[in-house]
Write a structure and sequence with these properties.
By secondary structure, this protein is of the alpha+beta class. The protein has three domains: 93 residues, Tetratricopeptide repeat domain (Serine Threonine Protein Phosphatase 5, Tetratricopeptide repeat), CATH 1.25.40; 94 residues, Alpha-Beta Plaits, CATH 3.30.70; 28 residues, no CATH class. The chain is 48% helix and 19% strand. It is built from ten helices and six strands. It has a six-stranded antiparallel β-sheet. Helix 1 runs antiparallel to helix 2, helix 2 packs antiparallel against helix 3 and helix 4 runs antiparallel to helix 5. The longest helix has 14 residues. The protein is globular, with a radius of gyration of 20 Å.
Length: 229
């Protein structure tokens, strides 16, 4: 039976670490250099007490990506005693999924969300699908069940990047009967967008943009802001 990345995450969230190891190993047969799968495998090894295996797996990640923040933090945690309780292991997994990276991740509240009975079934860490429709990005479960829409400012920005070859993943960060917060993550950057951040803090960037455009006419200022984004 072929498994997906979502299967690996769901199995781990249930605390079935042995099964999670099997699934991640299977995924690595398809792509031995997938650093995200390697990180999940290393975490599973560390949770069940197989520290040497966890260490060697994290080190393999760093051979592929020397600055990988998840692997660096994972190795650091291996050097300090930690609890093996299931609740703690779930927190470790959730923190692993939601590790923020400047410009590559963003926590977003969805708009126009689905009915409460649909939202109530969502679980933290659950993988969601991003679909571009009518100049908006719809967020769905299993590509069928509508969950909500990304805010227009973020949606339009990501549509430009997705159209150029970037790829993104979305996970449930938290949910209530009337709100859904998702964690967006850039997983592939197209060469044409090298040096451009997927997510920026508009509040911090605006003063800089205005300063750069200060000596230009009003028409140029708006164009400058768009190009920098």
């Amino acid at each position: 039976m072929l498994h997906s990345k979502d299967d690996a995450i769901k199995t781990a969230l249930k605390g079935n670490w042995e099964e999670a190891i099997k699934i991640n190993k299977q995924l690595l047969k398809e792509n031995p250099e997938d650093t995200e799968t390697l990180n999940r495998l290393a975490l599973a090894f560390s949770i069940i007490g197989r520290a040497p295996k966890a260490k060697s797996t994290y080190q393999k990640v760093l051979e592929l990506d020397p600055l990988n923040s998840i692997a660096l933090k994972g190795l650091k945690k291996l050097k300090t005693p930690s609890s093996r309780k299931n609740g703690d292991s779930q927190n470790l997994l959730v923190n692993n999924i939601f590790l923020e990276e400047t410009g590559k991740t963003k926590v977003v509240d969805l708009i126009n969300i689905a009915q409460s009975q649909v939202i109530s079934g969502l679980k933290t860490g659950q993988s969601l699908t991003l679909q571009v429709k009518r100049s908006k990005i719809f967020v769905t479960q299993d590509e069928r069940q509508y969950i909500g829409v990304l805010p227009d400012d973020i949606g339009k920005r990501l549509i430009k990047f997705i159209g150029g070859g970037n790829k993104y993943e979305a996970y449930v960060r938290s949910s209530t009967s009337n709100s859904v917060t998702v964690f967006l993550k850039e997983v592939k950057k197209s060469g044409r967008f090298k040096g451009q951040l997927s997510f920026v803090s508009t509040e911090k960037k605006l003063p800089i943009k205005k300063l750069k455009a200060k000596d230009r006419n009003d028409g140029d200022e708006e164009e400058t802001v768009y190009e920098e984004e």
